[in-house]
DNA sequence: AACTCAAACAACCGCCGGTCA
DNA sequence: ATGACCGGCGGTTGTTTGAGT
């Protein structure tokens, strides 16, 4: 399995792209469209490997890419989605129109990770659940905490089992009590297009391993998958634009006494 | 002005799953 | 059935930039 780098296999240019190369690639894709990356370098006359072309297009040249700083709302959303999905950058990026997985990954690794680490309660795998107000939902020991976070780590581990690569940066911060409320995030309804936040669409991106936390399993999660999606969830997913009743769907998964209390912070619903 | 260091960003790499000949 | 290829993903590395001294 695997393969040697296509760039090193042949004598292809590596490193930063020049403006000329950008233009050539952009023009080529404008005419021929995306896809068939294997043929792009030759046809476009670029001395680059196909993967490099694809990456350059996806992460930089695509016209719908939003350049510039990550807004507070976007940052909030990234944190929340990361809580839920772990390092599934492409899935997270799929919820942030105009942002690439690479951009989000970089942002997480350089900014958010430090921010969350600076908040002692927030984000380590062994302080998964914590209530700093009444303590009711605090996990009493690390084993419990680890059990609830193991699933996403397992997934990452299995992904890397064969390669023997160590698993790093696999976080499971879904009970991050410092995370701001989604109601704040979406109160203007602007950070997500309606079609972008369909509950089922999001759930499609998950697998059962992602949901194997004992806390999640204790909830009647699958009921959510049936026809009884709560109205307020639909409201939020519809991007209804305002209102105080927005409840993110994974809040639902956590809405059990102190858990939800902890995660939501109590002031937002 | 020169240097150091950290942050930010772009790009590469290894791997996996799907597809197709 | 099999192997090569392609597209995609996440982790890591290299380079650039900017702040601080």
UniProtKB/TrEMBL annotation:
One of its GO terms (cellular component) is nucleus. The keyword Transmembrane does not apply. Residues 9-61, 62-116 form the HTH myb-type domain. It is found in: Nucleus. One of its GO terms (molecular function) is transcription cis-regulatory region binding. Residues 141-167 are annotated as: Disordered. SUPFAM superfamilies: Homeodomain-like. Residues 9-61, 62-112 form the Myb-like domain. Its main location: nucleus. InterPro entries: Homeodomain-like_sf, Myb_dom, Myb_TF_plants, SANT/Myb. The keyword Transcription applies. It comes from the Eukaryota. Keywords: DNA-binding, Nucleus, Repeat, Transcription, Transcription regulation. CDD domains: SANT (cd00167). Residues 147-167 have a biased composition (Polar residues). Pfam families: Myb_DNA-binding (PF00249). GO terms for biological process: cell differentiation; regulation of DNA-templated transcription. This is (wild Malaysian banana) hypothetical protein. It comes from Musa acuminata subsp. malaccensis (Wild banana).
